[in-house]
Amino acid sequence: MAEIINMPRLSDTMEEGTVATWLKKVGDKISEGDILAEIETDKATMEFESFHEGTLLHIGVKEGETTKVDELLAIIGEEGEDISSLLNGGSSKSSTEVKKEGKESTETKTEVKEKSEDKPKEESKGGSDEKSNTNAKLPDGVVVVTMPRLSDTMEEGTVATWLKKVGDTVTEGEILAEIETDKATMEFESFQAGTLLYIGLKEGESAKVDSLLAIIGPAGTDVSGVASNFTAGATTAKKEEAPKEEAPKAETKVEAPKAEAKPSKPVATTSTNGRLFVSPLAKKIAQEKGINLQQVQGSGENGRIVKSDIENYTPSAAAAVGKFVPVGQEDFEDVTNSQMRKAIAKALTNSKFTAPHYYLSVEFDMDNAISFRAQFNSIPDKKISYNDMVIKACALALKQHPQVNSQWFPDKMRLNNHVHIGVAVAVPDGLVVPVVKFANEQTLPQIGAVVKDLAGKARNKKLTPQEMEGSTFTVSNLGMFGIDTFTSIINQPNSAILSVGNIVEKPVVKNGQIVVGNTMKLSLACDHRTVDGATGAQFLQTLKGYIENPVTMLV
Predict the structure, then answer these.
(1) Domain 255-320 belongs to what topology?
(2) How far apart are CA 355 and CA 264, in angstroms?
(3) In the 8-state DSSP scheme, what is residue 76?
(4) 448-487 pLDDT, tens per residue?
(5) Catalytic position from the list 42, 70, 365, 528
(6) What is the pLDDT of residues 135-166, one digit of tens each?
(7) What is the domain partition of the chain in residue ranges?
(8) CATH class of the domain at 1-136
């Protein structure tokens, strides 16, 4: 028999809902507990589970569409089942009504529908009047929380657990209680903030939908009058049903499963289709904390994992059921950010998210460079580093490719004719970039002397602002730390930065033969607003010529 699924009331104030996403489509097989859709309420977007099994035969509300509570949302039944009569006359009936009236004519269904709808309207009206009268007497800031309709067939609910007690501060989104519906135990979030002033139902007690559940408001507010108005019309299911049902059955429902089933509940109970029974909020908190849900013991109905299970989870609990968990003690130290660290963070964040970076990577043959440096350093009082050679080569190449030596402004591009190269230097508090001015006009020994002087001042915190200003290009070298390749964030207002790696001895092919060679990898980060890919590639070709044949830098 086909089951009509109506728009559920997922919050105490919900009047209508919007389908944010359908997670199933017509024709899909549905198992009990499967998430059918995500529903936007007046407060939040919540997952809506199916309480039926079968095939999804009809979707009544498309994604993005809105309908009132208790209106047709979907129909689930047997594959190929004829549901035309339901679509023509029973779209607003519950699944119970459909079963009762399945053999009646369309006219009879219409009459029953009108009668069944008239009665709720009168009851609803009476309830509204009662609430409105109460609301008229409500002190400022006081909100009455009623038993929510948490499933499409729910008529009453039982408070399984209160997670807050009278006097507790409640924030919007916190779990007030776990409510047992006719299908499952679900967490009920508060949609108000304040102090829990009154609890209308004790744990284990039941009440009909829209009955008084709790009162929230400013601390110290007297709500005894408000509570009495609601309590007068609310009776618990225990008192109403005790004469109709045998006492042992009622006791078993409320007490026995909680006392006996808890020790025997399996860890991470799953349904027949492999789905883990876990509430959406518990799943979210577990993801934030990095907790493996397979290791958590659920305390909800059918082993369902709820928020409190995640909050109370400890590795020892998982170890007790034979699960391997890491051991150790978390430890940390908070270090106040220095002004330098704040400045670095601000500058690099601005660069990364305003300049469209792209990267070009190359590998240069360093055999000639190694020989050149050895010969140069054999001259008395003449010592140069590979970094000095890279800076000099970049300066000469930039003169031939001024667009890489440029700066971006909202209304113009500035092509610099002078070459000032910034050299990234690591210091205890972070990173500074002193500048080698007019690097193309200086000799290799002069560049080496300037870099050594600036690096020393940087480490001793003696650099002046003028010595860190005006760069048109930047070189960052991590080769001395054994780093083979990396990329850097552009040091604005530059248009590019060169990342220099380590010189590595490795097999290479020369003249068709595999021989031992030495190579170095470099990555050029470019601002695409000023430097196109071809422009960056041409710059690297020129740079390659100077580094692989360093004698040309002396001409």
Answers:
(1) Dihydrolipoamide Transferase (4.10.320)
(2) 59
(3) E
(4) 999 999 999 988 888 888 999 999 999 999 999 999 999 9
(5) 528
(6) 445 788 888 899 888 776 778 888 988 999 99
(7) 1-136, 138-240, 255-320, 339-554
(8) mainly beta
